[in-house]
Here is the input.
Amino acid sequence: ETVLTQSPGTLSLSPGERATLSCRASQSVSSNWLAWYQQKPGQAPRLLIYGASSRAAGIPDRFSGSGSGTDFTLTISRLEPEDFAVYYCQQSSPPWTFGQGTKVEIK
Amino acid sequence: QVQLVQSGADVKKSGASVKVSCKASGYTFTSFSIHWVRQAPGQGLEWMGWMNGGNDNKYYAQKFQGRVTFTRDTPASTVYMELSSLRSEDTAVYYCARQVNLGSFDYWGQGSQVTVSS
Here is the structure.
């Protein structure tokens, strides 16, 4: 099983700032089968990025993903008020696994 | 439009079983796999397994093997997740999600709250 470790646990930033979230895998993620999700309280997760760097439909271009192998990054170029949420990475080699999440909170 | 609509909240006693439904619409049901993910209160996302929408292929996470069963009703475009021998640690919101590109999940159900009481 591939363990995903996200850092930091919490990121305190102001609107307009840049957010950089990390996801490290315990073994290489096949063919970049790595996705990122956003979750707000009381809501289901929302797909942001798949294939490590492809934006899902309707996702603003301030969200970008990068990385390969065992190290992946989600970057939010300029935080909007609606971006404060919890973010999860996920890998898709069976068994699928999620990271523990990074909370982006308002500073 | 694509929708996954889940059954409502349920309260069960320890040792009982619960069955959660996930009705798909807006796409060809048999062309996509459905996954189940749960989230305990204040915790992260935990993957439980998946079921192919077009055949009987399924995969259960090791943690749940022997306790979880996925079934489907193709004419009704509905997938079911049944979890048995419930314990308090199974109290969580259970989600179904559709698998698409490179193993990601593009549509999610609204979640079904399952509460296990002793």
